[in-house]
Design goal:
about 240 residues, alpha/beta, Rossmann fold, 3-stranded antiparallel β-sheet, 10 strands, globular, binds 2-amino-2-deoxy-6-O-phosphono-alpha-D-glucopyranose, Glucosamine-6-phosphate deaminase, identical protein binding, Glucosamine6P_isomerase_CS
Length: about 240
């Protein structure tokens, strides 16, 4: 595991984006796992900038988002369909038809189809990940089985409270979601985990230095052979 600490979030973003760019440069139809949240925004901005500067052909790149709220209208501005389009697909210039987000219907069939689509694409080359304050990955909350696959899940009160800022009120935040499982995430060939800010310090310390346990889903990354943490000094403050 490589842990890199940055004072400057733009520099953090450039470092993390280089892993994505390297995968695409090596293989034009690379499969990139995409995360929502504020953590990867500097990565996405740097990816867009570096790809433009280097004239990278990204027309064959595939993308798979980690998760989506259950029952949300995909056209809702805070659906992960919308967020992935706004924060990644458009700025980076990916081909929209080559980027998938789990279906908000969140049925068993939709979950199985998502797993099959990832497998059919050859698996994820680089998975971008944020980390929840409670150590969650995607919407795999504490207690999620370490071998879980894409499925419908319930959100914890903490996650609903954290995500309420994106909605009119906490009551408007969906209480369920569809998420790639921890087993799905671990199948990616490389994990790039981004964390920014003091609020993530305890989760980062538990994930990197604590025991591997379902109580801290991100701790499972200790078992991955190719994982890079790009974190700022505040997020690193409890290491
Ligand atoms: C949501 C997403 C996670 C993300 C987390 C952290 O719960 N499902 O994938 O990592 O938010 O968000 P932020 O980066 O804004 O702190």
């Amino acid at each position: 595991m490589e842990v890199r600490v940055f004072d400057d979030v733009d520099e953090l973003g450039r470092f993390a984006a280089e892993h994505v760019i390297a995968a695409i440069s090596a293989q034009p139809d690379a499969v990139i796992g995409l995360a929502t949240g504020s953590s990867p925004l500097s990565l996405y901005a740097a990816w867009a900038e570096l790809a433009r500067e280097r004239g990278l052909d990204q027309s064959a790149v595939r993308g798979f988002a980690l998760d989506e709220y259950a029952g949300i209208d995909p056209e809702h501005p805070e659906s992960y369909h919308s967020v992935i389009t706004k924060t990644v697909v458009e700025p980076v210039g990916l081909e929209p038809s080559r980027v998938a987000v789990p279906s908000a219907e969140a049925t068993e069939e939709a979950a199985a189809a998502y797993e099959e689509a990832i497998t059919a694409a050859g698996g994820v080359d680089v998975q971008i990940l944020g980390i929840g304050r409670n150590g969650h990955l995607g919407f795999n909350e504490p207690g999620s089985p370490l071998d879980s696959r894409t499925r419908r899940v319930s959100l914890t009160a903490e996650t609903i409270a954290d995500n309420a800022r994106f909605f009119d009120s906490a009551a408007d935040v969906p209480t369920e979601a569809i998420t790639q499982g921890l087993g799905t995430i671990m199948d990616a060939r490389k994990l790039v985990i981004v964390a920014v800010g003091e609020a993530k310090a305890a989760a980062v310390a538990a994930a990197i230095e604590g025991p591997v346990t379902p109580d801290v889903p991100a701790s499972l990354a200790q078992h991955h052979e190719n994982v890079v943490y790009a974190i700022d000094r505040a997020a690193a403050s409890q290491l």
